[in-house]
Amino acid sequence: MSFPKGFYWGGATAANQYEGGWNEGGRGPALTDFTTGGSVKEPRMVTWMDKEGVIHKTPNKPMDDTLPEGAVKYCEMEGCLYPNREATDFYHHYKEDIALFKEMGFNMFRMSISWSRIYPTGFEAEPNQEGLDFYRAVFEELKRNDIEPLVTIHHFDTPLAMVEKYGDWLHRDCIDLFVKYATTVFTEYKDLVKYWLTFNEINNVISLCSMFGGMFNTDEEYQKRCTHLHYQLVASAKAIKAGHEINPNFMIGCMLSSPTVYPHTCDPEDVIKAQHEMQECFWYAGDVHVFGYYSPFAKRIWAEHNVTLDITEEDKAALKEGTVDMFTFSYYMTNNTTTHKGEAQVGGNFAAGTRNPYLEYSDWGWSVDPRGLQYTLEITYDRYRIPLMVVENGIGAFDELEADGSVHDPYRIDYFAKHIKTMGQAIDNGVDLIAYTPWGCIDLVSAGTGEMRKRYGFIFVHKFDDGTGDLSRSRKDSFYWYKKVIASNGEDLSK
Ligand code: BGP
Questions:
Q1: Does ligand 1 come within 6 angstroms of the Cβ of 216?
Q2: Catalytic site positions
Q3: Are 408 and 460 in contact (CB under 8 A)?
């Protein structure tokens, strides 16, 4: 048995892509409510007003929530569809969805709290009671079904009012606003939730710079993004300290995307380049979370990009006192990098580097690399030696809905079978992996492209890119397969 007894099997979601109910229950707006749908070729757009009152639509710059130049505020544009608003409506379907998760055998469910449902603008002194009540009802429903919640406190949805005032996380005040919010939810749910994650994919903000180059690779971008990240790292650490005071049994983790990088050739120049990209994209934020300080290589990154960070003595103390209990990450693919010219490049959303001839690629250009998951688990555990969780993994694919309501998705089953197998091998090799929550266990809106047709779920949701669909749920073939996997604690991967 590779997977230990009590291993957590489940699925993962996020409020901004799943919850819906965007203007109900006293919830305030978040930027994702003003972001349109896109595709692998067309970027998602944001809609905003200039000082003359004219409304514009411009490409959303990934991981950069500052208002576009000339904007005074975000607002709606007639004729635009904003898919995250209704999303796939967990808000009104949570009981039905939790029953389906239970049927599959989940003993863990990852979800996030929408900050603006608790503090509609972020600035209120008192939380929104209706928002608190909603999540209490969800956590109680999970408890009744013996499903342990794994709760992300911030998943891409800072309240809009804070984004408009501060350009997202470009101001120190965001730290205290976050700690206030985190403290509220820790206190409110201290007897219902044990496992918490502070920021989803906290490292994306900087990993984009080295992975994508181009417009992200300027000193100005690095300055901005390292500042944003520093404030979030301090906010995370302060929240962790507060959380442990509220309930010493809390297990609080970080959440990073794993942009595992391979050197494209064995040329030592490529090896060093890959190592530096791993430092920048992964270990930079991970080391601060786990060790409580910036690792020596951070100085190289700052020097190379002329970054001067506002790190106070109080920040340093906070980082030391707020280290994580567990390390969690998302894993979708690996990337190749090289110093050589002329190699074929990958295409797709959020995929970068050269094409790996040993791998296959998804319809969205993401490499499929199960061994890469094993590799990532092993190098991460070698480095950190604290419990790990894979809290996102999966393949976004076009699913065909049959006339009888079924969905045959052998490609998804194949993807998961291979990844679960290599996870088992990592455990056999000594990795302390405690949970696996595949992404979008029920169909939801894609973060990168805003599409519905990029589906990840074991459960199909009848919602489509033109906004139609009755939101009913049906089980895909992979639903029955995953149920069997969970029942056998990861032993039976047969198709
Ligand atoms: C991660 C995010 C998720 C999720 C996932 C898949 O970066 O944490 O929110 O969306 O990627 O990405 P996409 O939705 O673009 O396919």
A1: no
A2: 201, 392
A3: no
Max CA distance (Å), the chain: 66
Q: Give yes or no for residue 348 CB within 6 A of ligand 1.
A: no
Each domain of the chain, given as residue ranges in start order, spans: 8-39+86-487
- Judged against a pLDDT cut of 80, whether residue 373 lies above it is answered with yes
Q: Is the CB of 443 under 6 A from ligand 1?
A: no
| φ, ψ for residue 74, nearest 5 deg | -80, 145
The pLDDT of residue 351 is: 76
Report d(CA 26, CA 81) in Å as an integer.
Answer: 22
Q: Name, in order, each residue with C-beta under 8 angstroms of 271's C-beta and a sequence gap of 6 or more.
A: 263
pTM over 0.70: yes
Alpha carbon of 436 to ligand 1 centroid (Å) = 16
* Ligand 1 center from residue 189 Cα (angstroms): 26
CB 396 less than 6 A from any atom of ligand 1: yes
Mark out the alpha helices in 10-109 (DSSP H runs). Answer: 15-18, 83-86, 90-104
Strand-strand pairing, 335-337 and 261-263:
parallel
What pLDDT score was predicted for residue 417?
Answer: 98
Please work out whether the CB of residue 447 comes within 6 Å of at least one atom of ligand 1: yes
Residues 127 and 169: their CA atoms lie apart, in Å, by 21
Q: What is the DSSP letter of 472?
A: -
Of all protein residues, the one whose alpha carbon is nearest to atom 2 of ligand 1 is 447
Q: List residues bridging with 330 in a β-sheet.
A: 257, 392
Is residue 440 within 8 A of residue 457, CB to CB? The reply is: yes
CA separation for the pair 444, 302 (Å, rounded): 37
Domain 8-39+86-487, second-level architecture: Alpha-Beta Barrel (3.20)
Q: Residue range 347-360: average pLDDT?
A: 86
57 contacts 80 by C-beta, under 8 angstroms: yes
Which CA distances in Å does 62 have to 132, 204, 285, 314, 350?
30, 9, 18, 30, 9
Question: Is the pLDDT confidence value at 62 over 90?
Answer: no
Q: What mean pLDDT do residues 50-64 have? A: 92
CA 153-368-408 angle, 5° bins: 85
User: CA 250 → CA 177, 246, 326, distances in Å?
Assistant: 21, 9, 11
The per-residue pLDDT for range 105-114, each reduced to its tens digit, is: 999 999 999 9
Band of pLDDT at residue 307, cut at 50, 70 and 90: very high
For 450, other C-beta atoms within 10 Å of its C-beta total: 25
Q: What is the pLDDT of residue 387?
A: 98
Decide: helix, strand or coil at residue 355.
Answer: coil
- Residue 26 in contact with residue 16, Cβ under 8 Å? no
149 DSSP β-pair partners: 109
Q: How many angstroms is it from 447 CA to the middle of ligand 1?
A: 5
> Tokens for 284?
């930079």
Question: Cα of 396 to ligand 1 centre, how many Å?
Answer: 9
Q: Please identify, by atom number, the ligand 1 atom nearest to the C-alpha of residue 204.
A: 7
